[in-house]
Amino acid sequence: MTAGGERTLERAAEVPAYRGHSVKVLRTARLSPSFVRVTFGGEDLAGFADKGFDQRIKVILPLPDGSITPLGDGDDWYQRWRALPDELRNPIRTYTARAVRPESRELDIDFVLHGESGPASRWATRVAPGDRVVVVGPNAAHPGPVGGREWAPPAGVEHLLLAGDETAVPAIATIVESLSGSVRATALLEVPEAADALPLDVRPGVKVAWLPREGARHGDLLIPAVRETLSALTAPRGTAAGEPTGPAAPAGPGAASTLEDVDVDVDVDEEILWEVPESTGGGGLYAWLAGEAGVVKLLRRHLVQEAGIDRSSVAFMGYWRLGRSESA
């Protein structure tokens, strides 16, 4: 390794990949019954790196008295948060950076509203300009990769399939708006009601389908929609409606048995359902699934075991679990 390379590694070790950015609410916009967009501002956002796609960030919410306990700027901020007494430990929730405008020091985050059942929804329902939070996000001063982004389809895929519930809408919306349109893509978005269908700026070749539950259970619309889409995409050309783009990537030897070993044994009530494998590429279909863990598990099983998609071409993330709240 050259001396320059050693200095880069030393600098990367000294500069945290993520850091807290102190921000205040500039404005809010009610996008639909279930979504509100909060625009944050502050000079600290000059150092917020715009990594795009499904970049995960953490929002540190205020305590009931409006205070935020300082955690410092090091990579060990989370350990320090865990060590705090309960009365000083601020609620933390995970979100996607919907839009970043470093030149104007602004950051947009879309919050899902579900009443008073959690601290983030409760805060977002009552938020007003001037309210302050801390956003832990990628540090523009860090010279290396920062992580926290799972969208990484291989070159050469023929069709992209993105599926998720309302918690995945900000990530999927950001991804599909970034697509060039040179590769066909289908996004299936299950949301609480029809009025939650948001306008998205997508290019030709990108199809977005909104699936309002209107009181149905989570997954009742998304699961059959994924099956129908796969049926069209994996059918021989000219034999199914919708002009399929070609066959899915074939399953490799033992793919189904590997899924059996890994997936069926995952208890989504106790374990994190999250895997972003390195895809072998080679054309076909690449799927990206996110949302309620139980639904994501069923979708993944269908893609690999029933539809024969190679598991290296299926990324899946259990963002949350029905009946459980996020711990941080």
UniProtKB/TrEMBL annotation:
Listed InterPro entries: FAD-bd_FR_type, FNR_nucleotide-bd, Riboflavin_synthase-like_b-brl, SIP_FAD-bd, SIP_fam, SIP_rossman_dom
Region described as Disordered: spans on this chain: 237-257
Sequence ranges assigned to domain FAD-binding FR-type in this UniProt record: 18-145
Alphabetical list of PROSITE patterns matching this protein: FAD_FR
Transmembrane residue ranges: none
Domain of life where this protein originates: Bacteria
UniProt biased composition (Low complexity): 237-256
Pfam families, per database record: FAD_binding_9, SIP
PANTHER family in alphabetical order: FERRIC REDUCTASE, NADPH-DEPENDENT (PTHR30157), NADPH-DEPENDENT FERRIC-CHELATE REDUCTASE (PTHR30157:SF0)
Name of the protein this chain belongs to: Siderophore-interacting protein
Organism name: Streptosporangium vulgare
